Amino acid sequence: MTDYYGTCLCGNAKFEVQGTFDGFYLCHCQHCQKDTGSAHAANLFLKSAKLSWLAGSESVTTFTLPGTRHTKSFCKFCGSALPNIHEGGLLLVPAGCLDTAVSMSPTAHIFTSSKAVWDKDLDDVPEFDKLPE
After folding, report:
1. Which of 29, 14, 39, 2 is nearest to 97 (CA)?
2. How many Cβ atoms are within 10 Å of 7's Cβ, its own excluded?
């Protein structure tokens, strides 16, 4: 069992996750595109894990899209995505909110039928170590 630590962007919400990740999915569904503002969400899942809020639990807000199982928890001050517990106790952890390195590679791309049209041939796009001038 491993301990993972994470925070939101403003540092108000701090948490610990105890457990081993069962899966790491890059979700391309339209809901995840909307709530990340990007091509996909990068989420880790744990079936049996313990989530502990170390600070700022009162700043965590959860939104569930009506008529769906799509749920997102986030900091009400900075908007950063944060862990949440889904139906049946499944813990979802947005990979980007972790401060502890995750050695696991993504398990799979999911909902690729909704993939953004511009999310292709990205290996051919120039790369920069910082914001280009």
Report:
1. 14
2. 20
Please state whether beta strands 108-110 and 23-27 pair in parallel, antiparallel, or not at all (unpaired).
parallel
Residue type, 81: A
Q: HSE (CB half, 13 Å, CA atoms) of 34?
A: 8
Residue 32 CB neighbour total at 10 angstroms: 22
pLDDT digits (tens, 9 = 90+) for 99-122: 999 989 999 999 999 999 898 888
At 4-63, the pLDDT tens digits run 999 999 999 999 999 889 999 999 999 999 989 999 999 999 988 789 999 999 999 999
Topology of domain 2-115 in CATH is 2.170.150
